Amino acid sequence: MSEWIPDHEWETIVRRMPIVSVDLLVRYDGGLVFGKRTNEPAKGEWFIPGGRVSKGETRQEAVHRVAEDELGISVEIVESLGAFEHFYDTADVEGVESKHYLANGYVVDLQDGNPGTDDDQHDAVEVFQSPPESLHPHIRAYLDASETLDW
């Protein structure tokens, strides 16, 4: 369902539009799965898996696709945290100075597979039993909104 967007079109989208996305708080082995990002925004930070919602795809379908694409796992949705406005002072597009997401947060349970680094957005994936030292404020907002996580 997810289609490749040519670079010049992606630049226009990032420059002019918020990007609808899903972010996953993956519960696994008594903790949460984080990936060390290799691209902007939040490059070099421990962050939760996420990705854009494709046209014609429901947010729930996007949750399952992102889990498979980024981590090689299947998940069960436990809780929808709602929509969050995420503004970044960096972007993954040369010449674009910021990025805006309308991110939909979800708590999910890992059903099958082991989280790995199956994508080009992370150079490490780890399960944290408590928040990493420098927890990004966007992730803190998800944790604060959750009724099923006790972090």
TrEMBL record:
InterPro entries: NUDIX_hydrolase-like_dom_sf (IPR015797), NUDIX_hydrolase_dom (IPR000086). Pfam families: NUDIX (PF00293). PROSITE patterns: NUDIX (PS51462). Residues 15-151 form the Nudix hydrolase domain. Keywords: Hydrolase, Magnesium. GO terms for molecular function: hydrolase activity. Its cofactor is Mg(2+). It comes from the Archaea. The keyword Cell division does not apply. This is NUDIX domain-containing protein. It comes from Halovenus carboxidivorans. The lineage of its organism: Archaea, Methanobacteriati, Methanobacteriota, Stenosarchaea group, Halobacteria.
